[in-house]
Specification:
mainly alpha
Length: 145
Amino acid sequence: MNNIYQKTSASLESRERGKCMVTRQRGKLDIVYYPIPREAAESIDWAMFHAACAAGIWGEAARRFDWVAFFDGATNGVPVDPYQFVDNMLVNGLLLLQNLSKEYTSSSFGAFVTKAYQRPVPNTSGVVVMDAGNGNPPPPPPDGK
């Protein structure tokens, strides 16, 4: 278990006073990654996600996150260590009752967020994509081949 996760998990529980962030009830709690699933950390378009956070879409803590330090040393908008955000449970954690956390982790919400903020992957294979964006194949090359 990494140090950022351990420190911020305890702080999240303290900040929320040991209550579920959805029901505000006490009980057996789990901390889940929210909104960015850990497995998606390296495929996120962090500049786009940062813009959403700056607009307040993902809450006040994510808006106030130290984005300057996060992007320090970034190459083409890709941070050196995306886990600075992802493993920080104060900005990317959700404290839930265990029965709710099981529902959350089995839902497709994480996949939805991942897809919404996924970094485009350039096509370097030379393969032509067979969808011109309108459901139709692209037009043939000018020479008809």
